[in-house]
Amino acid sequence: MNQPIEPPYNLDELPFHIRLAAQVLGAGLDLLQARHHESWEAGHRIGFMEGSAVAQKLATPEQVRILSLKTTDPENQVCGKDDFLFGGERIQVSSDARAAMRADCESRLGRSGQPTVEQWKAILSTSNTTLLGGGAGTGKTRTLLFRALFFHRYARVPLSQIRILTFSREARVEMANDLQVLFGLFDVVLTPADCHAIVMTPRSCLISQSNSLPDLSNAIPLENYGASPHDASTLSDGRPFETSLNDTQRVEMTKCLNLLYRSNKRFNETYIGLWISALRLPQLEVDSPEVVRRASFGWKLSEHDDGLSDTVEALWRKARAWPVDGVTAARKVFTVRGRPYATHGYIPQLKLHVVLGFDRSEGPSLRRDPSASMELYKEVAIKRTLFQAYFPEGVVHLDSYQDAAELSERLKHLAQAAPSFSYALKGEETPTPVLDSFNATSALLDSLGLEVGSVPGRMNFLPADSDALYFEALAIYWEALERHLLNLSRPVIPFGRLFASLGGGKIPAVRYVPLKTLEQCRHLLIDGAEDQTLPVAAWVRAVLSEIRRRDSIQASTRGLSSSLTVAGDPNQWVYGSFGATPKLITDFEDLFSSPVPATKVTLTESFRSPQTIIDAGYNLVQNLSLGVNRGPKSIFTPKGEHQIVRIVGDDQEQLQSICQSAAADGYKILILIDSVVDKAWVDSAVGGRIRDDRASGVRSIRVRSFHKAKSLEADIVVMIGDPSAGVSSWYRNQLFKLAGFSSGGDSAPGDTVYHGEALRLAHVGITRARLACIWFPNRGVDTVRTASVLGGLKPGLFDDVRRA
Description:
Low-confidence stretches: 1-5
Protein name: DNA 3'-5' helicase II
Strand order of the largest sheet: 3-2-12-13-1-14
CATH superfamily of the largest domain: P-loop containing nucleotide triphosphate hydrolases
Number of helices: 29
CATH class of the largest domain: Alpha Beta
Number of domains: 4
Largest sheet: 6 strands, parallel
Shape: globular
Keywords: ATP-binding, Helicase, Hydrolase, Nucleotide-binding, Plasmid
Distance between the termini: 99 Å
GO molecular function: 3'-5' DNA helicase activity; ATP binding; DNA binding; hydrolase activity
Strand content: 5-15%
InterPro entries: DNA_helicase_UvrD/REP, P-loop_NTPase, UvrD-like_ATP-bd
Structural class: alpha/beta
């Protein structure tokens, strides 16, 4: 123990005059009731040390032990949680077994059929989690099939514990066939049924699990409801991101709509408000090009508005289309920018004015009078434009006699039946029947992992934006529809709700799935992971977590390993606009945590396309933030001379020539289309040749949409149309932000997704080609937000030979 610190000088030892000065200073401090701080601190330290030394001398051994106990921080008294989806054990397989697989591949497949060094790393991985990346044509799917072979034949995993998930029914069929062939080469005989039990889609796998639960064994997914027996097997896989309704679905949805319309006052008001907004003449800004172009004619036309109104109304009366029930036929003159213009009627129930338009059945050469400077239909169109820009109240512009008859019929039954109408959310190109729109939007929300019934409370709209009414009506309706469908003789449940039930909540329903069914996903391999959804990711996590939980409490499974292998390419993420996400790849280790480090492999050799085609495709996506923006190295040996991507104009003769030349050379063609207009253009150009090709059974020409190109390839790819990023959408940006797509503080994540998707669609299309790609991008495009413009086509990779 340290001795008390001695002061530097003893007062008695100081010289007299210094001692006297010190005494005077000390007396002064006492008189002022003050203290010298440094002296006080020194005395305090000395006293503390002396007291501690005395106490330690007097303490007994027991007292010393008791006093030495410490209080533990409460945080250190709480056990941690093991949130890993896997245990700490690797996949058990001997080095001899791995060597045997290599030897078998060499003897059975020949030199040209051997996996590459990179592929072998993924195939033989013993990690619980393996991530396989690579561009188009690098063999990701083939590598997954080899890994399934490795599990079964060399790691001795039963086939009943191996499950491969792929994106679509078409991909499932093709992959199952490839699996049967590959296993057969290694003396593992599988029937088509065996292969389809191994290769599934997330939806068909989900159905197999939900059918094992007593409460859900009889349930039908809404997307499958009403399918014919022939279609039911196909639809067990679901048709991801396809939201068209069949007649049976539409009948039940309409029945629920009318019941809710009559019983729920708030829904009634909201739905009617939405209908009114759909009926109203869409507004135009006063500085829009159409208004600027027509306004000067419109102001002059006001001098003849009486004659124009009389002429149009006379045509309607002659056709016996006016007046109609529910509309008060009464002319009313309004002053618009100081000039008189008349309406033809008023709808009291909706508080909307009515203006009669020009029915297309009338002759286009009709004029208001012989001296009129322009045709009648043009004057009607100009007046319509002025009303869109300047009319201060709500107005319905009836453009045909049929429109008037349908409006009258809906007004007649307005008290009992919800009117049917079409609606376009801001940012959508064309209006869609409201039930179809509700179904498509709810599917998007399900894919984004958002609850349909509660999402409106997290959104904001400007006061006059009718999209706010849309989402409120959707929320009320969809919850009522789910209850309605559950009460049918055979319960009907949307896929989104099934995924949420088995993969979400504090206790997901997968907890009650029998072990025999659950174990089918013990070794899970996912292909095309870039276009899966967040609910699928949550369901996969729940399944893997439940397998681990059961392994820890059941002696029969204790010590068994499980694994997840994910393959995909973020540059081929083309369903983002439908709610898909590449997070299964980009957030792989966060989503699928394991104490064993993940094996990550990127395949860098392409077996499909020549280097010029690969580089052209990657030129389009090089500035996107996701994925590897450098293309793989081509090791492809072309059958003929390969070319750079040719961009040609709107010329059907060129398409005919391409198809004729390809047929003469024995090449297969893949024609990719972007819209219904593209489909009609292709049919007009080479429809006869395509039908003859199908009838002969050769099928050397295939026509698909850009979105369905991923699993395909051909000698020559012809791209018709130009994938578009569309226009900005306020509602869409909010939804994607709520779903977590707003990386880096992006304030418009929906627009960002659409922008990237347009480029990736073109990238995917180009990289389907084995020899050549020809692109017809410029037909009927009225926007600059298209792939050919956004991509910045690099000379030397693209040859633009469009006619001036």
